[in-house]
Amino acid sequence: MEVRGKVALVTGGGAGIGRAVAVKLAREGASVVVTDVDEQAGDGTVREIDSGVGRAALFRADVTSEADARGMITFAEEEFGGLDVLVNNAGGVSEPYFPDGEPGHWGRAIDLNLRGVMLGIHFGVRAMERRGGGAIVNVSSVGGIGFGPYDKPEYGAAKAGVVRLTASLATLKRRMGVRVNCVCPGLVDTPASRRERARMTPEEQEGLPPVPLRPEEIADAVLMLVEDETMAGRVMIWREGEPWQLVPPSSLY
Ligand SMILES: NC(=O)c1ccc[n+]([C@@H]2O[C@H](COP(=O)([O-])OP(=O)(O)OC[C@H]3O[C@@H](n4cnc5c(N)ncnc54)[C@H](O)[C@@H]3O)[C@@H](O)[C@H]2O)c1
Questions:
Q1: How far is the CA of 90 from the centre of ligand 1 (A)?
Q2: pLDDT (tens digit, 9 = 90+) per residue, 128-143?
Q3: 236 CB within 6 A, ligand 1
Q4: What percent of the chain has pLDDT over 70?
Q5: Measured from the CB, is residue 13 less than 6 Å from ligand 1?
Q6: Which residue has the higher pLDDT, 205 or 55?
């Protein structure tokens, strides 16, 4: 898909990976709806894009809210005439991790990292169908891949859900002309990961990879998944310090 002239929407576009993705898509010529629960953060991205990068508009949306998810898609259609690209990026998790927190606490992590993605796709594909197709990229995590122990179980489970959801939706390309793919990054240098690092003991920090990925690298990966028409239901894994790889669709694990 040629991004120039298309309409894109990025959730959690106010900071980190979402901000880099929004700026990248705008630089490539898309009109970008930046959505974020933090209006000020979202506004910062819109200002950056407005300062000569391209065209953007802000819509405050909490991806865990059905009304907001519906509203952000409607906004894209009203503001820029439709929706061609959706990047479900908003996500994250906070302590205490499952099972130490209350159900309301870990439930919010599931809502943010899995249900929010599903709400975006639910309303997004309807708008894309009206345009004859589109591309969706979900931001999962390497935390959602594998069969070993993991220190943030609710986050890992939700991100694993996003991976399975993405692969399950490969058939949407045939049914609706909508390609759904996802990227699973390792450690990325963002406000969220910097906050987490600041809470770690020096010993824990020593265990971190020396060079994390940059948000701009993930933005490049997202762009590739949007542009390459052969990509549908594909899962990209990108661990820091390694080249990215696409999981073969026939893979058992
Ligand atoms: N940073 C990493 O190391 C890393 C690694 C793997 C995956 N990820 C994933 O990448 C995505 C982006 O992470 P990041 O590190 O850039 O995060 P970040 O916290 O730096 O930025 C996330 C943005 O999303 C917004 N947001 C939070 N909750 C929201 C909600 N309910 N609705 C709408 N917006 C919301 C925040 O306000 C913020 O602007 C997340 O899905 C995260 O799980 C991050």
A1: 5
A2: 999 999 999 999 999 9
A3: no
A4: 99
A5: no
A6: 55
Quick one: 7-252 is in which CATH superfamily?
Answer: NAD(P)-binding Rossmann-like Domain (3.40.50.720)
pLDDT tens profile 37-72: 999 999 999 999 999 999 999 999 999 999 999 999
For the whole model, what pTM was predicted? 0.98
Non-local CB neighbours of 215 within 8 Å, separated by 6+ positions: 16, 17, 19, 20, 21, 188, 189, 190
Mean pLDDT of 118-130: 98
Respond yes or no: is residue 155 known to be catalytic.
yes
**Ligand 1 pocket mutation pick from 34, 66, 89 by most atoms within 8 angstroms of CB:** 89
Instruction: Write the DSSP string, 156-207.
Output: HHHHHHHHHHHHHGGGHHHHHSEEEEEEEES-B-SHHHHHHHHHS-HHHHHT
Please check whether residue 18 is in contact with residue 36, taking contact to mean a CB–CB distance below 8 angstroms: yes
Ligand 1 pocket residue status of 192, Cβ below 6 Å: yes
Q: Which atom of ligand 1 is nearest to the CA of 193?
A: 1
